[in-house]
Amino acid sequence: MKLDVQTLDAKKAGSVELSDDVFALEPRADILHRMVTYQLAKRRAGTHKTKGRSEISGTTKKMYKQKGTGGARHGNKKVPQFRGGGKAFGPVVRDHATGLNKKIRHLALKHALSTKAQAGSLIVLDEAKLAEPKTKTVKDAFAKLGLNKPLIIDGAELDQNFALAARNLPYTDVLPVQGINVYDVLRCETLVLTKSAVEALEARFA
Q1: Across the chain, what does the average pLDDT equal?
Q2: What is the mean pLDDT of residues 129-156?
Q3: Does residue 166 contact residue 139 with C-beta atoms inside 8 Å?
Q4: What percent of the chain is predicted at pLDDT more than 70?
């Protein structure tokens, strides 16, 4: 598929031929769902923890004699049914990450890119560079381009002036091409790729 290349001033700077193998697939919701679930599970801290019966500090002495009290039979006070006792089957520190084949992860990214391309939410920029880190300059450029809640993907190295200027804008993310991921692509309203990002993505999936 062919797409116009634009500058930050919203002027045309030629066109680029996008690979059909990366940007023109028929999106599959099942693959995208698996990838998003994988990403969100992987980033969970898993540091939730409660103390079990064996971790409570206290005596293990039997509370009272087995018979003759008229009450229920009990051992020590660290059991879950008493206040201050351990938690039964509470959460433990663990890794929530699940496995997903690299083939599926690569395919999911292709489908995410294709989703944006088919929805008309993909813009290709000539370059994302500024002479000085001015947030107003980026804001005005986004207004000219009609960008709202964009995700900007640049080449392997970000232009620091552009990155510094854009980080002050709400709902705006700027990532190098190696940081592109399915969740952020689907979450943004407009995906913005620079020409160097397009070349890197097509080389990655070649």
Answers
A1: 94
A2: 94
A3: no
A4: 100
**Measured distance CA(163)–CA(129) in Å, rounded:** 9
In 3D space, the residue among 85, 117, 87 whose CA is nearest the CA of residue 20 turns out to be 117
Please give the Cα distance from 54 to 81 (Å, whole number). Answer: 14
Tell the residue number behind the tokens 């690569």, with chain if given. Answer: 106
Q: Say if residues 27 and 186 touch (Cβ distance below 8 Å).
A: no
As given in the structure block, the two tokens for residue 74 are: 């009990």
Q: Are residues 139 and 181 in the same domain?
A: yes
pLDDT value, residue 121: 94
128/55 same-domain check: no
DSSP the chain: -EEEEE-TTS-EEEEEE--HHHHS----HHHHHHHHHHHHHHT---------GGGS-S----SS-SSSSSS-----TTSTTSTT-PPTT------------HHHHHHHHHHHHHHHHHTT-EEEES----SS--HHHHHHHHHHHT-SSEEEEE-SS--HHHHHHHTTSTT-EEEEGGG--HHHHHHSSEEEEEHHHHHHHHHHT-
* Distance separating alpha carbons of residues 9 and 161, to the nearest angstrom: 16
Residues 128 and 192 in one domain: yes
Q: Does one domain contain both 186 and 163?
A: yes
Q: Domain residues for 74?
A: 50-90
**Residue 1: band (very low, low, confident or very high) from pLDDT cuts 50, 70, 90:** confident
What pLDDT shows up at residue 95? Answer: 96
